[in-house]
Amino acid sequence: MPNYKVADISLAAFGRKEIEIAEGEMPGLMALRTKYGSEQPLKGARIAGSLHMTIQTAVLIETLTALGAQVTWASCNIFSTQDHAAAAIAATGVPVFAWKGETEEEYDWCLEQTITAHPEGPNMILDDGGDLTWLVHDKHPELLEKIKGVSEETTTGVHILYSAMKKGTLKLPAINVNDSVTKSKFDNYYGCRESLVDGIKRATDVMLGGKVAIVAGFGDVGKGCAESLRGYGCRVIVTEIDPINALQASMAGYQVDIMDDVASQADIFVTTTGCRDIITGKHFEAMKDDAIVCNIGHFDIEIDVAWLKANAQSVSNIKPQVDRYTLKNGKRIILLAEGRLVNLGCATGHPSFIMSASFCNQTLAQIALWNDNNGQYKRGEVYMLPKELDEEVALAHLGRLNVRLTKLTKVQADYLDLPVDGPYKRDTYSAKRPAASTLRLSRLHTSISSVAVAKVSPSPFTSNISSSRGSLLQASGKGVALRFSGPQQQAFGLQHLNTSRSTSTSASSASNNDDDMGAIATGRVDTTQRVQALRQLMSKHGVTAYVIPSGDEHASEYPAESDLRRGYITGFTGSAGSAVVTTNKALLFTDGRYFLQAGQQLEPSVWTLMKQGEPSVPTWQEYLSKNLPANSKIGMDASLISADDAKDITAELSKIGSSLVPIRENLVDQVWTERPSRPGQPIFVLKDEIAGRSSSDKIRELRDEIKKKSAHGFVANMLDEVAWLFNLRGTDVPYNPVFFSFALVLLEKVLLYVNDHQLDNDVKNALGSEVTLRPYAEFYNDLHKVGAELGDGHKILIGKSASLAVQEALGGASKVEIVRSIVVDQKSIKNDVELEGFRQSHIRDGAALCQYFAWLEEQLHAGKKVTESEGADKLSQFRQSLPHFRGESFTTISSTGPNGAIIHYSPDPSSCPAIDVNEIYLCDSGAQFTDGTTDVTRTWHFGKPAPEHIRAFTRVLQGHIAIDRAIFPKGTTGYLLDVLARRALWEDGLDYRHGTGHGVGHFLNVHEGPQGIGTRAVFNETSLKENMVISNEPGYYEDGKWGIRIENLVIVRPAKTPNNFGSKGYLTFEHLTMCPIQVSLVDADLLTREDKQWLNEYHEEVLAKVGPLLKEDKRAQEWLKRQCAAKV
Questions:
Q1: Which residue in 137, 258, 692, 933 has the fewest CB atoms around it within 10 Å?
Q2: Active site residue 430
Q3: Region entry Disordered: which residue ranges (predicted)?
Q4: Is 153 an annotated catalytic residue?
Q5: Taking the CB of residue 289, how many other CB atoms lie within 10 A of it?
Q6: Residue 861 is among the residues annotated as catalytic for this protein
Q7: Is 212 within 8 Å of 265 (Cβ atoms)?
Q8: What share of the chain is helix, strand, coil (3-state, %, to 5)?
Q9: pLDDT score of 490 more than 90
Q10: How far apart are CA 931 and CA 737, in angstroms?
Q11: Is 350 tagged catalytic?
């Protein structure tokens, strides 16, 4: 007779397949097998185990046996066993006694078998909940002497152990695994956050959005449950006995109340306390009809199921673990898993990755107890694993998440009084964390992968995002302070540590973004062989010339590294420009912002710099029709040129018999043999309470506009369009929290094209049934089908940035109507929630700026060397400690002296100069926060400025103030306002070669259209509208000497005027940026009375809003006061 009892041993093969998958998600346990396998530290141990018999537990059991133990096993809950997992383990010869749906008597029998299955009985116990431990104490006390100890998994079992220790009834040494940081703060919080709703939805298919949910208890389990329910749109009420937990819940935004008073309000009840009688008869009687009641605490005593059974008129079993009780008052109660663990009774429990951390602690506890030959662990006492082991568990999981740890220097370690290699947490630390997500953003859940954390110096706003391995894994699971691999490292906080980053902009997107941020200015690259290889491919395709734009097929301002083709072929890393390669010439076309940088980077023997905007210099489009021979064939990737541009270019080329030749395979890609792969990071949901509007509402508005234009649908090809429309964010592209995708919104359906591996259940649930998910690679194929099915006269709307490839896939120009993107217009008008997020994020950002400039001034005045790159890194450090920080919004421009004249310079860490106290210092930087995006420029002189510095700075300031104070009628464009920013400069014969303002997205692209302020015709196409956000950034640059720019973000707001001529209404600006402007650089004699009043009032506002955030940083606070006290 086999020494096991399971439901069906034939399920073993199925179970083995799932075990193999789980092993890939349980890196900690696999690392322990590798590290300790040869030592066999559990040899001779006979472990009796009682823990949910799941696939994840199967990996734990096989880890214990791999380390030398003999194991017997039973489940710790009658409904939690996964029968295929039990069968797979039984088939290996391990005595397993577990099946789903045991009776209470069968459960007791199974526990008994774990003790008697081995002839000599157990000498170790691994328990979850305490049933096995106390079975041995009560019925088999003769075994206690030879049992070396017990490790306990869960909160309830730990409570019982401590109670027994206090009473003197505990007869074994015990290790409290539950309260290890990498167990309770991950299993209890993150695990329940995912598995609770999984259980509820599998059981009921209920729509959670809009429902009221009561979560009883706000410990770690309750925190995870509350956050999960709120993330699905529930209004969550918390009940608590603990004043600290209650305060946490309240400060996290939850209503905290008494069950008796709110039971009648809720649709869903979840108990998480581990205590008895949480929901009793009087609560059932007060509940709504068909209220859903469930428990995720260990035992079934939290819900008075006995009362329900005794007082119900009838009960109907809907399906396994789902019962509908009808009360005498006619109301029905839906009880899940008979009041036992809903996540295991109605679903499959926690994800494997979470359980890996928990089970590593169990394994280490078993090793510690079994190898204690010196009496370190006393009988009757309960112990915790040392922090070294806790951090070892966290460390074992970081590689799976692509996490990189910063190393403490000896100086830093001495300052913190910590060992260089840890442990970093004191023995008293239990990782009590805030209840709410910092979004995670911060989980904002976002990307779980590719997180890196930088060590921050002691300062206010410091967080636990340090080198601590435990905190780091917690940050990764929660989404805090995102860091990204590849180009995303550079985009979000680590860009100054790299020297080869290049970014670029498509011709179509560049037309709207006049202030694209550049990249780290690298040295010259010899591109001779690259261009030669390209010409060979051109010859094969029979083309006279080949055009390489800066952008990708989504018209992205910051393409992924894999799409930086123009940067690769030219060696020029500026963010705007296009290349044209002919049989005997190679030309780079860019504008005045990049003349200096391009001149430094292009190989002159290969490339000719075409300085667009200068007399007699054509655009690249003009060059094709005016400079190339007639009957030329110009090759191009059709996905990289807009259909609108292609139409105009084709019309001009046709006049001379030339033509545009779409080439399916990008020729630069074929030359670029080591081209990086395109990112595909996890996508996360931006909750409606942060976005201010639901995705459904946005889609409804979009469809209304489609109908108004008598069209059949709309293609969203830009990444920020898709992210905004669906309230999703990602990390595929540097600086911008977007992901690779397309969307097709038709009148009858909505299609989202994205790689499925980037989507978790949270995202899929948020999208709901309204959105059909399709593979990213099927986008053009589907467009072809949609175009073929269009009726006569029916058209699909595409934006001006949509590529020629999109138009051709739909069937050509007759099937599309090119319009300014409807979504671009929609998202440019911010709602009240977004605007308030902008205000709060700019106040926080102002605090980090004050900390940085105060620190920098102190360093320079002390004679210390700070390079441009080190300065940028320091500013990033201060920002990283801020709540809701998600990363930088563009590469920081930290420039001293002559480098400030390079409008979009960014320092190369390997060669950049030190910031010179005797030179102008220009710092242009920005951050992404969950609630807003910032972009700010300040110009400082930390020594004695020259008269020409002061005069130019004052003229720039006058232009800045003129824009800020402007009042203008509705319908006015930024093209018309631009003259206000330049008027004062013009009086001195000065000017600047960039736009004055660009639109800014809400936790989206730092540059967005359609609005802008500037001299280019595109800025006359869109009027400035109420609730748009735009930058105000005039400047002046003395080539080879210095540069000055002053930038604030502003909101377009209604103006209060004594009259309203023409009944149009008038608009003005509300400034968002909160950072002082250096008064010692101002010539007060040039300012008007109104200018002086503006500057003084601005500083009073900055001090009032930012000052309270600097209470703990006296240096920054005193610096802020000093700057704001200076009057003109």
A1: 258
A2: no
A3: 495-520
A4: yes
A5: 13
A6: no
A7: yes
A8: 40, 15, 40
A9: no
A10: 12
A11: yes
Kindly state the tokens that stand for 264: 């009648």
Cβ–Cβ contacts within 10 Å for residue 330, how many? 8
Q: How far apart are CA 1028 and CA 451, in angstroms?
A: 33
**Backbone phi, then psi, for 346, in 5-degree steps?**
-110, -5
Tens digit of each residue's pLDDT (9 = 90 or more) over 436-463: 222 222 222 222 222 222 222 222 222 2
CA distance 25 to 37: 19
128 in catalytic set: yes
Indicate left, alpha or beta for 113 from its phi (over 0: left) and psi (-120 to 50: alpha).
alpha
Q: What is the pLDDT of residues 29-79, one digit of tens each?
A: 998 998 889 999 999 999 999 999 999 999 999 999 999 999 999 999 888
Check if 864 is active-site: no
pLDDT value at residue 497: 25
- Of the candidates 295, 321, 361, 362, the residue annotated as catalytic is 362
Amino acid identity of residue 863, one-letter, is: G
Which domains does the chain carry?
5-182+351-401 (3.40.50.1480), 190-346 (3.40.50.720), 527-663 (3.40.350.10), 684-827 (3.40.350.10), 832-1125 (3.90.230.10)
**Is there a catalytic annotation at residue 919?**
no
- Residues 854 and 1123 sit within 8 Å (Cβ to Cβ): no
The 3 state secondary structure assigned to 708-776 is: HCCCCEEEECCHHHHHHHHCEECCCCCCCCCCCCEEEEECCCEEEECCHHHCCHHHHHHHCCCEEEECH
CA of 99: how far to CAs of 6, 114, 321, in Å? Answer: 5, 14, 14
Q: Does pTM surpass 0.85?
A: no
Q: Which of 84, 152, 184, 192 is catalytic?
A: 192
Active site residue 358: yes
Residue found by looking up tokens 């823990």 in the block: 51
Alpha-carbon distance of 242 to 246, in angstroms, equals: 6
* Three-state DSSP string of 1036-1090: EEECCCEEEECEEEEEEEECCCCCCHHHCCEEEEEECCCCCCCHHHCCHHHCCHH
Q: Which tokens sit at 152?
A: 């306990």
187 is catalytic: yes
DSSP-derived letter for residue 67 is T
What secondary structure letter does DSSP report for 279? B
CA dihedral 157, 161, 166, 171 (to 10 degrees): 150
Total number of residues shown for the chain: 1128
